[in-house]
Predict the 3D structure of the following.
Amino acid sequence: MEKLRCMYQRVFGKNDPESELFAPYRVCPLGAHVDHQHGLVTGFAIDKGIRFVFSPTSSGEIDVVSLNFEGRVKFNLHYPIDTKCHHWGDYLKAAVSALQQDYHLERGIRAVVRGELPIGGLSSSAALLCGFVVCLSLANGLSLDKRQVIHYASLAERQYIGLNNGVLDQSCVMLCQKNKLLFMDTATTTYQTLSFGAKRNMSSMITAIGNQLPFKIGIFFSGVTRRLVNTNYNQRVDECHSVVWMIQTLEQRPKTSTENTFLRDIPKELFMKWYNRLPPSLSRRAQHFYGECQRVVDATNCWERGDITAFGKLMDESCNSSIHLYECGSAELTALWAISRQCDGIYGGRFAGAGFKGAYIALVDPLYEKEIRNMVTAHYLKRFPEHADTFRIFFCDVAEGMMPDQQTFYLQEYGIDNTSGRICHKDVSTNSKFPETIAAMGA
């Protein structure tokens, strides 16, 4: 944070910033491309992210500088937000816009922000939005809880940025716990944080006594950057909606509105009844959805058994499904996956984030870090020498989310009992008895 504090003083000529904040990046080992369809997901926060130093302004002035990108974002929240600037500053405007739907913001912020890793696949946008929402909340004394931060950050990305995502990214930023796997049902927003090896005897839980997991998260940046609103991300979401509408038509049911259309509401058996009547591309999207939700269930069991080899194999299966059924990826990401599968010490991996360009993630044995770095770098740059200046590899640990708090997350508006933290009449306990809607889905 020292570098940020120095920059703050240099830019603003003021005293030290009053507050500091850290928003972690996230990875999703299983649960690819299903959160926007109310599927099942998993996630880790990692020990790299975005750091903020800031102070409130009584005038309503917003003045923020990034150490990663050019441009200084300045506006006053007492006046209508002007048009998009089509760079990182839009995320700050998005956070203000989302909060102003429910709150009158009096105070702005002066801030300096810095991301610790390259952009692409780690939900840097979710970390940035959650950070800005919390900064503005603290400056205005709003005392938002975790569920509210997730809500406003997700709302900002959907409404202002224009990305039709779910709540996985923001939830990982806010809810993850160190050395635990986040398991979330995005249809109900209930979640659990699962300990590694919890279903084995105590001596085998996480090399847990020493507080160390038997792997690190390898992050392989392809060197290709992307903005999701300029990829096929939204198209894939629309294709999933189309599957639902076509089945509703075939079943002679009324069509649901776009905002209430999710593959989760179509049981797998019903999809199988009609899949031959669907266009092949749409059928593939649905097959990925049902298969991925099943892999999430299987992965949580592997995790609690302490079987990292089986867990990694499921990640490879997820990646294969993303390529052939969901049809995302790029030549660079596919090459990274293929190279990694030839490396000793890699348990398994998949494309990070939306999987269109940015990064490939893998679970790696820490004893093989050097060999993995050398082999992947040599083979990848031999094929893509044009990325020599931007290709990067990092090895990270599973970390705490942004605001550690109680274990069970709930949203009253989704019908969740806030005293028990469970969906009314549905069991989401850690004994693998999943909500009845999951069983109906065929997961």
Remarks:
- The longest helix spans residues 280-305.
- The radius of gyration is 22 Å.
- Residues 404-443 have pLDDT under 50 and may be disordered.
